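[job 4471] stage=fold_predict status=RUNNING
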Amino acid sequence: MIHRFTVKGNTEKFEREFQDYADYLLHVPGFDFLVTVRLLDRPEVYTHLGHWRSLHSFVSAVHDEPYLDRVRRLGAMVETEADQAVSIARTVLGEARVGEDSVLLLRIQVHGDWRTVESAFGVLAAELARRPGHGGSDLLRSTLHARRYQALLWWRDGASCAATLRSGIVQEFAARVAPAAVVEVERTRHLAYRPQSPLD
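[job 4471] inference complete, writing structure tokens
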């Protein structure tokens, strides 16, 4: 599940409330892990990715009152965009450090052949994997919007992310898929990566 939050008021208050929500999720059966980032050029905007082991696990969770109570409290603070997606190309080499400006979001809207996007992303991921400091990539295809993808690229630290951006490789990807898709690149601060405990 992908949620994009635009905070209407105090972001520190939102982050405290969101922390409680995240802590709760880590103990919900079927929840796998979460990633949360904050846009650098729009610090009131957050993207949260909650990875579930199955759709059934998610549907079961959202009918429970403890989940709904937390969502209601968060909902009063934000404007929300929601999407559901499946990961189709994930490479994990290492983790991004929390607090670093080390994660890129690529919001991809397809208007041509979707295979162009998936093929070009494979080339990009393979090239990035050979570069120092790269932590991994994930291409997510929306299950609600037939022509929408979201990708994450992450580095072990902000300096490696910045160096890769200066190299132009991400911009080259966007240019390569331009006949088939529009790519919006957003640099973010990595706020959280938290896997569920194996005991839960």
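[job 4471] summary: The helical segments are 11-25, 55-62, 65-75, 114-129, 158-167, 169-177.
[job 4471] exit 0
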